[in-house]
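I am writing to request your help with a piece of structural work I have in hand. I set the record out below, with my sincere thanks for your time.
___
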Amino acid sequence: MLAPVNVTVTGSRIRGTDVETAQPVFTMDRQAIRATGLTALGDIIARMPSAATPEVTPQDTLSSSNDAGGRYANLRNLGAVRTLVLVNGRRWTSSLGGLTDLSTIPLSIVERIEVLKDGASSIYGSDAIGGVVNIITTDRFEGASADVLYGVNGRGDGTQKNGTFTWGRSSETSSIILGAAYEDGDELRDSKRSLTRNAYGPRHPDDGFGMGPYGGVVDPREPGTLGAGSYAPDGSWTANRYVVNHPGGIAGDTANLANYHPYDVDSNDDKYATSRDMSFRSGTKLRSLFGTGRYNLTDDIVLRGMATYAVRDTRSQSAGYPLQSGSGRADGLFIDPANAYNPFPGYATPFFRRTTEMPRMTWAKSKVLHGDVGAEGTFSWADHTWTWDVTYAYSETRASRTTSGNIDLVAARKALGPTTVIDGRTVCADAADRAGGCVPWNILAGPGGTPDAVWSYVGSTTTSRQTTRTNDLIANITGGLLDLPAGTLRVAGGIEHRNDHGRYRPDPADSAGLTTQLASDPTDGGYIANEAYLEFDVPLLADLPLARELAVNASTRYSHYTAFGGRTNDKYSLRWKPFDDLLLRATYAEGFRAPTVADLYAGSSETFESFLDPCDSVYGAAASDAAVRGRCTAAGVPGNYRQVDQSGAQIASATGGQNPTAFRTGANPALKPETSITRTAGLVYSPYFADGLDLTLDYYKVDISDVITPILAGDILNFCYVRNDPTWCGRFVRGANGRIASLDESLANLGSLRTEGYDLGLHYRFPETRYGEFTVLSDSTYLEDYTQVSSPGAAPRHLAGYMNGVQGLYRVRSNLSLDWSWRRFGATWTTRYFSGLKDSCWSSDVECNRPNELNALTGVAGVSRKGGVAFHDLQLRWQAPWNGNVRVGVNNIFGRKGPLYYNVTSAGGGSPPYNPAFDIDRYYYVGYQQRF
């Protein structure tokens, strides 16, 4: 038989019993996982106080990224791309953007989750800046187990159905585990709840309306034509806009301008509440197969292997496309002068109209294959036991994304082109177009005025595909090197050869700009990483007064990437036990994050951003800051400039609006890695007089330089005008009317990021009583500082305590659980607390309880401070005498609703002003497990 050895704890490759306390590692075992009532690993990890909201959430239904629909981990508010995910100490597959989808890891084979809240690049390489999530799977299982769970939200939607089956056999020399899992989660709709029914929440039900479903036109006649428009004081011409009358929801003769009325951008009569057609949370189905096996080849050598295959399907819906003449790219899209439905015959007429009859549907499919084979063993050398392992791992993700509901611009031009009359019917004038299926489109008629034949002709369904592959070869060895007076000096070392390659193929029609889908270019690239590391654990003192143990751990790793060259990262740790009850620990760690394949090689793509233009004369910084106003004027922005949203309306609050034209974002092959320094210091106190009590307190500080980031539109404009940093002003172009015509959000190594805070843990298992066993678990995080610097020399933004995009930078996050068990019964009560956050004001006198406080996000005065919220969960369980286990529970038992935040962005969050970290409703579930 293989000789028993000590375990390896996340954060170190050295096997031992004392090393586990040298790093701040949080562990959730199988019982704690089941007590959450959740079925997705990403959702479970997000419950931890040290975890934050990732860049992509399940609510991100507007994204065109293949990452949408997955579940991701984000530690220390540093982003999912800076959190390394391991399975049994080995990297899991990731996307082109560097995100690891935790939903592809079957929960049924998870034995425990270890979260290292510390930098670990010297041990694991790139990405371990925020920390490491290590999923430990079961390696021995006897018999069979079936587990099912059914859950539903209090509003009767968002049903969750989950089932797993696991079978295993073990002997003295071998073990095998096989299993399958199925998860089905129904989507949630924005229209179902008052919190999400309106674009800006229930307090502003009449704001945030988008382009309407009834046809509108822009007077196409020459500037200066009487009745066609008007001149502004600055001499610019504004053409009149009209919308077809629609009494009772039925449009009249669209060819007769007498059937139109002037379009009032400040009225909702001709607009549309897009949230009524939106998914709040995507529906998801997940099927997975998995298998693990071990075989003792000799007494000292074990062969092992693991394979998983998972398929995830995600479905979401967004409102019909806001089609307008500008949607036609550079060539524009107009109603032809000879079109029978044109109210301005003889003119190419611009139009606008949302195609509400054809909501945009997105179906995403992700297929993940992971397999690894290897061997591990032990041998004796120099009177010490050594352990070695060699592993080859292959990971592959194939993802596709199919979207319907967009418009085929080639077909739309023909359908809006010249018409003629044949046999009393209005048809496309071009015979070749008619032969190709062309049907005239009365785009101005509105809902019910477009036959199905037209939708079939002008509708577009396109598919993009993405593939990532990783080949990874790893070898490690660890053991005792020599005996010192205080103990054994232990060492670990290893090498790794990893080849990452990714490819993205947008639909050719989308890529060519022939549809209204966001255009993007192909991606194809990769890199090879060769790495080697060494780690030493050196005992200095032992069994002395005030030095029951004193030891240091040092590690170094050299990484060479074909994309950018070599990097060396070191880490130093100290642990000191002045007496048996108290452990003091500290670390200093260098880290890095390599640019992802998408960072380096992705083609440029389009994006529609929501932002506040600081040059807006009413709500922008120019309204109150003379210096900003002067910079805007110097840039040629009219003094009375007003930002307009997608519907053409002037923005109505400091929340800004979505730009009518697409911006561009893209990769940068010259990117360098991000670099980091992590410092931690803490203690673990387990007093002898209180058996079962453990108290932990840890301080952390992480500094990141050369941050790889896409710079969002609002930040670019603020950096240029508010912070007066001219290096940003070349990233955008304004038209003569002051409006942003184009903007570049491409990636760059810019600025820095710092986070600093404290973790406090208190775990106490009470002495057993006649009423059962009671355990209290409390884990909290306090965020002292979170500072961003946009570029060298720029003013820092201190954002701790703010709602920042989809990420709440809470000063305090805390979980408190009370667990009770008695005979076959048990119960767990959990309280999850989120402290209040600062948000942007709705306006200077509405929802603005701190109007004079400088907003660190925007750089102008006005802060709305909103209170904290606590969610309470209850689970009851019963162990049946026939090896069955029943659990029932309610999450958010009191139905609490958190505050709404206007800083929540649609990018990642999907449904502002809802905070994606908060519970949306009560959630009821019942589960049953049967062992055979």
Q: What stands out?
A: Residues 1-7 have pLDDT under 50 and may be disordered. The radius of gyration is 30 Å. The first helix runs from residue 30 to 35.
